[in-house]
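Appendix C reproduces, verbatim, an entry submitted by the partner laboratory led by Prof. M.T., so that reviewers can inspect both the input and the predicted structure.
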Amino acid sequence: MIPMYPYYGSQTVCREEMLTFPPQHQERQPGIESQMNPLPIWDNPAYKGSGKLEGKTALITGGDSGIGRAAAVAFAKEGADVAIAYLYERSDALVTKQAVERLGRRCLLLETDLRVKANCQAAVHQTVSAFGKLDVLVNNHAVQYPQESIAHISEEQLYQTYQTNILSFFFMVQAALSCLKPGSAIINTASVTAYKGEKELLDYSSTKGAIVSFTRSLALQLVDKGIRVNAVAPGPVWTPLIPSSFSAERVKTFGADIPMKRAAQPFELAPAYVFLASEQCSSFVTGEVLHVNGGQMVTT
């Protein structure tokens, strides 16, 4: 029997159809989800919430699409109100907002550039002003610029990648720290590339390695405050970052070279974020990285 993967609503797709993608490319990162073919699968109708995040408030960066949207919807199913920060992708963000609100939860949209520390402070302030508190911070946004050689990585690209992928994580935590109480959680999105490397994503992979160390060190620093800090390290996932960073030719076989022979869909990552966000599930888990990578063996 060929496994079927649910789209939001009534659509389904065969696993065999997920092994390759039509060639496509978008010119601007982090990309627009509504322009992708096929559209990513960000909700699993079979996933039923059970109040794991009842009454909680979460701020998810990069929450307009991809893994961020999938996490936002899963959090809403578990009873959380959600604020989502995004760069420019308002049309995608509105889809996330509508999905969260259909589930009976509130959703705040924050269009901002998190490379700027003041914007991170404003995002946290607006979230707390709207919802009265902040319980879960998910640092999830990123960019990547493939280059065949380290010699081709410009100074501008290097600063852009580090400012987006790791410096902003520092800024977000600094902004949120005074709002987080015992029982709160911070979740950072790392990557399998932090462990296996990726020859054409040298600067991206190194920022993801930094996120792993950031997570482990911050967990030690905040454990006495009762704040848990963990990370998720995805393998290949079909998100807007893929067609907006890779060539159309590379997109065709994205994810086909791993043991499960396919890229993940965003909804397959969402339960890992729920697990780490919920005290009911992970009260004794901090400084850890969950590997959701399709069978790639890594040394942690």
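The chain has one domain: 4-292. Additional entries are available on request from the coordinating office.
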